[in-house]
Amino acid sequence: MTQPIAFDNSYARLGPGFYTRTAPTPVPGPALIAVNAGLARRLGIDPDWLRGPQGLAMVAGNAAPPGAEPIAQAYAGHQFGGLSPQLGDGRAVLLGEVVAPDGARFDLQLKGSGPTPFSRRGDGRSWLGPVLREYAVSEFMAAAGVPTTRALAAALTGETVWREAPLPGAVLTRVAASHIRVGTFEFFAIRGDVERLRALAEHVIARHYPDADSPMQLLERVVAAQAETIAQWMALGFIHGVMNTDNMAVSGETIDYGPCAFMDGFHPDRVFSSIDRGGRYAWSEQPHVAVWNLAQLASCLLPLMGDADAAVPQATRIVHGFPALYDAAWLRRFGAKLGLAQPAEADRALIERLLALMAAQQADFTRVFRGLATGAARDEFRDPAPFDAWARDWQARGPDLQLAAGASPVRIPRNHRIQQAIDAGLAGDFAPFHRLVAAVTQPFDDRPDWADLADPPEPGQEVRVTYCGT
Cβ distance 202 to 224 under 8 Å? Predict the structure, then answer.
């Protein structure tokens, strides 16, 4: 068979200091859980090869294909506001960059592939639950049009991973435009390594923003990309859970699906992460945290921007421009969910009134917005009278219900359904996982055989707390 993957390794060519060369640790009993055939074809990889012995060896970490140069990337990060000067890939290895048939390049990374020099005494492994969660959620996000990392494959390792209890080990093959984070810039900035900082900025410009001609324009592009992405999160009721700077990709992609979740009953202050006791990363706080994170990126780039007296106010204006960009994207996204093709600024109050009604009655986020398109939204309110009054004003705007249906998914990967798929997988049954993935990757298709997957949890089924994927 000819070489199944066309690799490049431009990040590895940045040289020492950006990473450590680290091979995945082989596993004793690899077994495929899932292969994403559509994504494989996008990358120019034969899905049948991935399902075969060579593909399984790659996605399990037992053999790197020719051309791959496995590395663990270095980065730092502010975690819940506190700086951790050295983090890095503690349980992931970047095999290299796949060059797709159209010339686009994508990182191919194994998560849960064993210890690296950045593991900080950890085992570098992942158990099955986080692998299934990230696969399902990231593929839903891609299907919903949100910039995101993707899942190419998931495999069991045949190992036992010890957490609170013995659990089956698994590896996720993750695809990304790149894995460069705000924390990657922080790693070099806090060390005063301007030479590597400049090389990193030039690499990101060439790879993601070739129309940018300076670090200042790079900052401007990243701010704009993040404003769009986070507006899309908000419009889906998505809560990332750990918006640390090491979990913000400069490409604008959503990265690191740890204690993430989608809201059932809506409340703007909803938190799911078990470690977010202060609500720093609540749904309503996400745009504010984005500004904070982007300010850290701006601080990192300042040494590359020339005269500080001129650069500081300009970079500050760019970061402070995030709210206007985000507000415009938010209005456009939520306006579409109301069937308003060109929402006016006055429609913002209409949207916020609906959100306030939803919060007051804990109405289901996804079903209310989908119900606007189908006429079923009223049923989501215990007391429909306030909704009826709101709906009269909404109808006066002449909404396009087809537009509303195209902006509001029928189903999301609800927390309790993910947990059911994980529980079944722990018992050796992956049919619920495959059914969930099939349904959430066609999120706007109102199929009767998936109707149950659109339902909110019954009493006793709620999953109110999620945990970091370790």
Answer: no
End-to-end CA distance of the chain: 36
- Residue written as tokens 């990332």? 240
Of the candidates 90, 88, 30, 89, the one whose C-alpha atom is nearest the C-alpha of residue 59 is 30
Collapsing DSSP to helix, strand or coil, 74 comes out as: coil
> pLDDT-derived band of residue 1, with 50, 70 and 90 as boundaries?
very low
Q: What is the dihedral of CA 123, 127, 133, 138, to 10 degrees?
A: 40
Bridge partner list, 175:
108, 150
On whether the CB atoms of residues 306 and 190 are closer than 8 A, the answer is no
| Tally of CB atoms within 10 A around 461 | 15
Q: How far apart are CA 205 and CA 218, in angstroms?
A: 7
| Mean pLDDT of all residues in 199-221 | 98
From CA 152, how far away is CA 278, in angstroms rounded? Answer: 35
Q: What average pLDDT does range 96-115 have in this prediction? A: 97
Instruction: Dump pLDDT digits (tens) for 252-280.
Output: 999 999 899 999 999 999 998 888 888 99
The pLDDT of 174-195, averaged and rounded, is 98
CA distance 415 to 465: 9
Q: Which residues are catalytic?
A: 246
The span from the CA of 372 to the CA of 383, in Å, is: 17
Cα separations in angstroms, 238 against 141, 219, 261, 430, 468: 10, 25, 6, 25, 16
